[in-house]
Protein: SGS-domain-containing protein
Amino acid sequence: MSATTLAHKGCEAVKNKDWEAAIPLLDQALKSSDSPIWLLARAQAHQQLRNYDAALRDAALAFISATERGSGNARKYMIDAQYRRSVVYYKLGRYADADCCAKWSMLLAEGRPAFEKDGVEKNVDENGNYTVTYEQGIADKQGQPIDSAYDRTYRRQVLGMVQEQSESVASKTGFEAEWKRAYAWRSQVLATLKTVPEDHSGRKVSVTKFPDKPKQEMAEKKPEPKPESQVGDSDDDKPVEVKGPAPGTVPDEQLKLRVDFYQTNQTVTVALFAKDVKKEDLQVNFFQNYQVQISPLPRAADPYVKPGDREAASTFILGGEIIPSASRWSVTPRKIELVLQKANAGLKWSTWGKEEIGLVAAGSDGDVQPENNATATAAAAPAAPPAAPPAKPTNAPAYPTSSRSGPKDWEKLGEGEDELDEKDVNYFFKQLYKGATPEQQRAMMKSFIESNGTALSTDWDDVKNRTVETVPPEGVEAKKWES
Structure:
């Protein structure tokens, strides 16, 4: 069986989360090639089996191999290798090292030179403790690559960034999804670092941007699985007594929380039902305008997860846009309540959203995507396209109407009706709406409804902050309906 075939089978096993089957297949394939994508797949498998030394070794080799190749998808593999190093260091309780690697992953995604000496690892005080804070990590968006005109508008209007400044330091790099993944992961790392004692070894930086090439004989040594480290342990290798089902043995659907929600014109209130939540330990992070991450969460189906386990966190992908700075949360003995401030007041959400187990960054599951690995060859497969920006709610609100045909969904106006007579004025408006951008459609809906059908604007900047007045035709007087 060829190395390519073995690697394909190994990457398929990673995709199917069959970690134990993946490793021997990738071991055989890697005897003939040091393909970064194969090394990253094996690193992920070793990490999931808690063979952390082996996972670090493979991530380091993947980074070195990618830098030596220096072409094609080399940058993507370097980004993924630094991210994988960060995850493994976090599992080992080396939180400062984990943040450094996550930052290097972000810088590479921003298009910065691969061999740049950026001094990330030098952010330490006189005691050698890492000084980067959670608040600094959340604010670290200056170099974020722009993946759409929507992102540019959001950052200018919501984050208060000047357009010229924003565009001078950020551009489209093709690695926007990888940047968001590393940024979201950093928040988890720094949030944990904030909780550990000042004398914890995890506050020390011992990592370098360019790892030393591991010795070859390490490949022959099969690492022994190690249990997860607990936050606050001074000994990273201290065994953890596990009672009941191990992390990863309970299906995600059984782990998800029971959710209820209601909404007003300004807010959406989401109730997440969980027992015995410790408010002092809870981390609730509102990301950009469409995502909330919460950890650690007690699970009714599996109460044995530890703070570092994937099951201890959840990412809530929201059904609409919010203003993070105006949103808030609270805790009672039986639930967590999120009060989400709508970015578009008056726009009805068709659903509150969905829960994903673990930390999910902008459409990614937080791991190197196995589907990209599955078709790898010794020369390395092409990278998958970057994730798309968060989608707008797919179901538009149905506004009250006295029409016998019921409420109208303005998003679907004109669907399936192209056969109408082109001389019909309704045909013109349907085609106009159908060919408009999302912002133009939003402006058309708002202006038409607020003006009682007497005005139609496609300029969202003009109508978004004002009520569109009713302007009746000449010779006609507008009167309020009186019952």
About this structure: The chain has a mean pLDDT of 75.
